[in-house]
Specification:
four-stranded antiparallel beta sheet, rod-shaped
Length: about 325
C-alpha cells in the first residue's frame, strides 16, 4: 500500500463524535468526489464515487451514523485502468435531501446553489469542523508522496474557486498552501516537510505523522553526517594539497640552493617535512629537535614557500 493509501486507511477509521464535524467531513466528500443527480421530477440522488475502498467505507459510515440512512453500494471494474470503482448511493429523495440540507449543498428552496464553491461557511465555522473538512477533502481527492523520496502533499480540485477556498481553510492553520493548475484541475499543495507534518496533525492522522517524523529525523541525521563528512573531506583535501605544495617547494630549494643557505630553524623543518610527508603540523612540531607549536611550524613552512618562490624568480634573499 502506498503512503497515501496508508493515510487514507487511517483517516477512514478516524471517527469524531460531534455531529457538526461529521457533517463537515461528509460535505468535503460530496464536494470533491460526490455527484448530485436530479431527475426529471426534481428528485435528488447522491453518489460518492471512489477507487479507494477506505474512502467508500468512510462515506458509507458517515451517512449511516450521522443520518441513520441506509445506502446502496455499487462496485464496478474499470477494465481500461484495471481498477475497481466503488459507489455509495443514496437513492431516496427524502434521504438525499436531508444530507444535502445538512451539508448546505442545497439552498432553502431545495435547489442546488451554484454560488456554493466547495463548502458553505456555516458548515465550517468551528476550528474542529475545518479540520474535519480538510480530512474529508484529502480522503476524496488528496495524495502524498512517500516521504523517503520527496515531501509533497496535494488535494486536487475541479475549479479554481474550490481550490482557493480550500487553500484559505488550510492557511487558517498557519499553513502556506499554494495552488497550481494541472491540465483542467487546480491543485492545492504543500512541499515543506514541517508543514506536511502539521497538516497531518491537523487531519489527526497521528500514525502517519509519527512515520513522517521518523523519516524526517533519519534524513536530518543523514544530512548532518554528510555535511560533516564533506567538511572533513574538504579539510583533508586542503591539508593534502598544502602538504604536497610544501614538499614541492622544499624539494625545489634542496635541488637549487641547498638547505645550507637556510637558517637552522628552516633547515630543521624542511628536513623533517621531507622525512614525514604525511605528518600534521602538530606532529611536525613535536618531531623537531626543538619542539615547536602549530603556529610556529606553519610560519616556517610559509617562509620556505616564500623562499622557493623567490628562488624561482632569481632572487637571493634567503634569510629567516
Amino acid at each position: 500500500m502506498s503512503f497515501s493509501g496508508e493515510i487514507k486507511d487511517e483517516l477512514s477509521r478516524h471517527w469524531k463524535k460531534a455531529r457538526h464535524c461529521q457533517i463537515a467531513e461528509l460535505a468535503a466528500l460530496l464536494s470533491l468526489c460526490g455527484n448530485i443527480c436530479v431527475s426529471s421530477r426534481d428528485t435528488y440522488c447522491i453518489k460518492i464515487r471512489t477507487e479507494n475502498i477506505a474512502v467508500a467505507r468512510k462515506g458509507f459510515t458517515l451517512i449511516k451514523k450521522t443520518f441513520n440512512i441506509e445506502t446502496d453500494i455499487a462496485i464496478r471494474r474499470n477494465l481500461i485502468k484495471d481498477s475497481v470503482i466503488y459507489a455509495v448511493v443514496v437513492k431516496k429523495h427524502e434521504d438525499a435531501l436531508r444530507v444535502l440540507q445538512a451539508t448546505k449543498l442545497v439552498n432553502e428552496n431545495h435547489t442546488i446553489d451554484q454560488d456554493v464553491l466547495i463548502v458553505n461557511h456555516l458548515v465550517v465555522q468551528q476550528s474542529c469542523c475545518k479540520r474535519a473538512f480538510i480530512r474529508g477533502a484529502f480522503l476524496a481527492a488528496g495524495s502524498m508522496s512517500n516521504p523517503t523520496k520527496a515531501y509533497h502533499f496535494e488535494i486536487v480540485c475541479p475549479t479554481h474557486g474550490m481550490a482557493s477556498e480550500l487553500q484559505s481553510m488550510m492557511n487558517s492553520f498557519e499553513m502556506d498552501a499554494k495552488i497550481v493548475q494541472r491540465k483542467k484541475s487546480f491543485v492545492v499543495y504543500l512541499k515543506e516537510g514541517s508543514q506536511i507534518a502539521d497538516i497531518l496533525n491537523i487531519m489527526e492522522a497521528h500514525v502517519a505523522l509519527m512515520e513522517l517524523e521518523n523519516v524526517r529525523i533519519l534524513k536530518e541525521m543523514r544530512n548532518t553526517v554528510n555535511r560533516k563528512v564533506n567538511c572533513e573531506t574538504a579539510n583533508i583535501s586542503k591539508t593534502v594539497s598544502a602538504a604536497v605544495k610544501q614538499m614541492e617547494d622544499i624539494s625545489y630549494i634542496r635541488d637549487t640552493i641547498g638547505f645550507e643557505k637556510l637558517s637552522e630553524g628552516l633547515e630543521d623543518i624542511a628536513i623533517t617535512r621531507l622525512a614525514y610527508p604525511e605528518a600534521t603540523l602538530k606532529e611536525l612540531g613535536e618531531l623537531l629537535p626543538v619542539p615547536l607549536g602549530k603556529s610556529g611550524v606553519n610560519h616556517r613552512l610559509r617562509k620556505l614557500s616564500e623562499i622557493a618562490e623567490k628562488v624561482r624568480q632569481n632572487k637571493e634573499d634567503y634569510n629567516d
